[in-house]
Amino acid sequence: MARSDAPADAVSDGAARLEIRPVAAGDHDAWYPLWRGYQSFYDTDIPEATSRISWQRLLDPAEPMHGALGVLGGRPVGLVHYLEHRSFWTEGNYCYLQDLFVAPEARGAGVGRRLIEHVYAEARRRGCSRVHWLTQEGNTTARRLYDRLAERSGFIQYRKIL
């Protein structure tokens, strides 16, 4: 239940309070374990140098890359990364929600939903015409949430690693 004195991106969850906020320079030590948890979930290991560059891009206002943390009871428990990109199909940019992760102990508390809604709000504020993302077919728990929050496009992704 939202409280009238709470910020627009905060809700009350019993004694714990969920806040969704953009990442800030002092958040690296909170962000990094979540970022590593995301990589572990997808059984991948992104090089440390790439993670450092990504963090710098998140903080650079000239970059089209953005990130937010979900903070529950004062503790960061989720992250979302998203970026704006052009499209030949619209005048406005699209917003690609690239990474979404909620720590196992915080799953089921609405953190993922709120992080996605945060991206929707930011994309609207920035004039984007669409938010889109991918997930693995076997990510059934997340897909149940995604099916409630968005429409499946029917497209199949193809890729070639270069």
Structural features, described:
- The N terminus is likely disordered.
- The protein is α+β, with helices and mostly antiparallel strands and 162 residues long.
- The protein contains four helices and six strands, in the order E-E-H-H-E-E-E-H-E-H.
- Strand 5, helix 3 and strand 6 form a beta-alpha-beta unit.
- It has a six-stranded mixed sheet with strand order 1-2-3-4-5-6, sandwiched between helices.
- It is globular.
- The longest helix is centred in the C-terminal third of the chain and has 15 residues.
- It has a single domain, classed as Gcn5-related N-acetyltransferase (GNAT) (Aminopeptidase, 3-Layer(aba) Sandwich).
- 23% of the residues are buried.
